[in-house]
Amino acid sequence: MQYHLNGFKPGNYQVPDEARKPYPEPPIVDLPNEVDVLIIGTGPAGLTMARQLSEFSDIKTCVVDMEPGPLLFGRADGISCRTMEIMEAFNSSEMVVKETYQLKQNTFWEPDEANPENIKLTHKIADARAGLSEFVHGIVNQARLHELLVDGMERSVTHLSPHYSRELVEMNIDESLTQDLDAYPITATFKRVDDAGAGKTETVKARYIVGGDGARSNVRRSMDIPLEGDSANKAWGVMDILLNTDFPDIRVKSFIQSKKHGAVMTIPREGGYLCRFYVELDLLGKDKRAKDVKLTEQDLIAKAQKIFHPYTLDVKEVAWWSIYEVGQRIAERFDNRPTGSSEDIIPRAFVAGDACHTHSPKGGWGLNTSLPDTFNLGWKLAAVLQGRSHPKLLSTYGTERRKVAQQLIDADRELSRLVATRPTSGDDSEQARVDTAKIEAFMKRQSGFVSGTSIEYYPSYICTGQENQHLATGFNIGQRFHSAEATRVADGRSQHLGHLVKADGRWRIFLFGDTQDPTDPSSAAYQFIDFLANDESSPVQKYTPKDSDIDSVFDTYAVFQQQDLSMHDMHDYLWPAKGKYGLRDYEKVFHAEENNDIYDLRGIDRSAGCIVIVRPDQHIASIMPVTAHEELTKFFNIFMIDQR
Questions:
Q1: Where are the beta strands (DSSP E) in 273-398?
Q2: How far is CA 52 from the centre of its chain?
Q3: CA-CA distance, 297 to 320, in Å (whole number)?
Q4: Contact present, 239 and 328 (Cβ < 8 Å)
């Protein structure tokens, strides 16, 4: 798709440029008095949490932001492979894929040794993240991603919409009520910041609060959670521009190092014309912030023109620009519990996204780390609020996501040093040539982390079974379920199995059969399915509410090696009767494809088969032998609540 030809226009890219208009400021609606979950901030963390919770009609959610309406410009741009997978869980990936610039190549430019005032191409490579997912790393305006999440909220059963023009001025937690699940220990006071409501305050009481309110988070400050790490001492400029240039790689992501004037990183944007520039600026003095740098967008353009010599940059329009500082900081803890608390202490307030980790934007990690924060937390909150899981489950959020945030901080610190010609205030040397090969090596080494596909959670009671990893070496326990295709038995359709794991709070159980006929009652696969369906100790029997569909908590799929199978020969549990009419579900049984065999792709033991348990956030919780009936029950007994 092409857009922005005659100037940048925010809004829905499905509307032609000449007709597209910015999102109108939404009407002001009074805040509710009491909610189950209060979300502060409409960035990627806040909207991802809201999008998940909007699917549960029995959970009352409120989303609040101090801005007058939805985001229109700039900020984050990269959409990682993992973020694409999460958008697929929200049934929104097709639009993101359609609209984004797909990142396929990187180029590296350095000073020309023969003429150091000029830059020259050293090499061009394929993007290191290719093949890590069925999705490709994409570039799109963050505002468009927000719009897709908000649209999904509004179309959900709860018709959830954000409340804008409210500033959180005070938040209190009644510690005497935090261990009472039915209580509302959170009291939040808001001030209207729109002209019509100036001076008006509103109070909301909540069972839980999630602060996705940015680096200067009022939620984090209210909990007295300090940020730890390095303060910023390096400034960069960023701008989205429409330009004419003779630079040959303007539509390829490029790392450019000049001899005397610093560095630029360019990222082509969606639509075919727009491009983002990250421009290296001078070092910040002690106690200085980016806001103290008195530069304009014209200064950024002039600096970039010097770096690009001998190529010309004729900038026609600056759609958005900003100056930011490079600093890496992380919150001491991600919830209101004191450091060192046991998992039996129930957290009631959480921070996510930039509220608990800050860093430079060059690696594209901000949005792509913030969004998975609450994708991790959302299903856990829903499970506890609905009485399906013990509240100790909530303590795993901080444990799992703080480890990821620390990895992010470490990686960003390294990347910031690599792409800058003078990376620290202690470096008084002349502008030095930086070997772009080191940047390339970094991107290759960190490709799994940059893409989000290698993010791994600690071994815990919801990530266990490492002794069985050999049964499926390509499904790494603790990492996300790496999708691959299989053929649906009922109709012959090729289906990505990872796309079956939707953001609906359900657990997925994938059975990969052995060499035995799965319709034979004596086979291990048949006996496992019969155990799920009929044994009183089965987690399906214990944790599925009496009047609910059989797959309302555990959605089970089977993949077999045998090609010649019939649905009507399968155990009834694999084509269950559901809904008010008892209609059969024919979409739960698959066989491996002949030329794209999932057993080979994911290293599944053909002779033994295996069970892969996938959490509601798409991460693999455990791998077990097909015969591990008792072990499966024990796994869920640790944190789930009997519904019988």
A1: 274-283, 313-326, 329-331, 349-351, 357-358
A2: 12
A3: 9
A4: no
The pLDDT, as a whole number, for residue 287 is 57
> Residue 361 above 80 pLDDT?
no
Sign of the dihedral defined by the CA atoms of residues 622, 626, 631, 632, in that order: positive
Distance CA 619, CA 479 (A): 5
Residue type at position 126: A
According to DSSP, the β-strands at 554-560 and 589-591 are parallel
For residues 587 and 575, give the distance between their C-alpha atoms in angstroms, rounded to a whole number.
8
Q: Residue 317: is it exposed, middle or buried by C-beta count within 10 angstroms (0-12/13-18/19+)?
A: middle
Is the backbone peptide bond immediately before 616 cis, with ω within 30 degrees of 0?
no
pTM: 0.93
CA 284 to chain CA mean position, Å = 31
Give the integer Cα–Cα distance in Å for 605 and 524.
14
In Å, the largest CA–CA distance within the chain is 79
Report the alpha-carbon angle 362-368-374, nearest 5. 145
**452-462 average pLDDT score:** 92
- Asked if 73 contacts 10 with a C-beta cutoff of 8 angstroms, the reply is yes
Answer whether 201's CB lies under 8 Å from 187's CB: no
Question: In angstroms, how far is the first alpha carbon of the chain from the final one?
Answer: 52
d(Cα 436, Cα 588) in Å, to the nearest integer? 49
Where does 286-435 have alpha helices with state H?
297-307, 365-385, 396-419
Give the angle 418-421-425 at the CA atoms, nearest 5°.
95
Quote the CA–CA distance of 405 and 77 in Å, as a whole number: 19
Could you tell me the CA-to-CA distances from 572 to 116, 388, 514, 525 in Å, in that order? Answer: 73, 25, 19, 13
State the sign of the Cα–Cα–Cα–Cα dihedral 630, 633, 635, 639: negative
Q: Which two tokens stand for residue 549?
A: 């569909």
Q: How far is CA 136 from CA 79, 149, 443, 451, in A?
A: 9, 20, 15, 9
Please state the three-class secondary structure of 189-242 as a single string: EEEECCCCCCCCEEEEEEEEEEECCCCCCHHHHHCCCCEEECCCCEEEEEEEEE
Q: Torsions phi, psi of 202, nearest 5? A: -135, 145
Rounded Cα distance, 609 and 471, in Å: 7
Least confident among 16-20, 328-332, 334-338, 361-365:
361-365
Whether the Cβ atoms of residue 284 and residue 324 lie closer than 8 Å to each other:
no
Q: What is the pLDDT of residues 300-356, one digit of tens each?
A: 999 999 999 999 999 999 999 988 876 788 999 999 999 999 988 999 999 999 999
* CB neighbour class for 289 (10 Å; exposed up to 12, middle 13-18, buried from 19): middle
Comparison of pLDDT for 553 and 215, the residue scoring more: 553
Report the C-alpha gap between 516 and 609 in whole angstroms: 10
Q: What is the pLDDT of residues 285-302, one digit of tens each?
A: 455 555 666 789 999 999
5 Cβ contact partners less than 8 Å away, ≥ 6 residues apart: 17, 271, 272, 273
452: Cβ–Cβ under 8 A, 6 or more apart, which residues?
80, 81, 82, 83, 368, 369, 372, 480
Centroid of chain to Cα 511: 27
CB within 8 Å of 121: residues ≥ 6 apart: 107, 108, 109, 248, 249
Q: Which amino acid is at 293?
A: V
Are the beta carbons of 626 and 514 closer than 8 angstroms?
Answer: yes
Q: 263: helix, coil or strand?
A: strand
What angle, 0 to 180 degrees and rounded to 10, lies between the N-to-C axes of helices 365-385 and 81-89? 30
Report how far residue 325's alpha carbon sits from residue 110's, in angstroms, rounded to the nearest whole number. 24
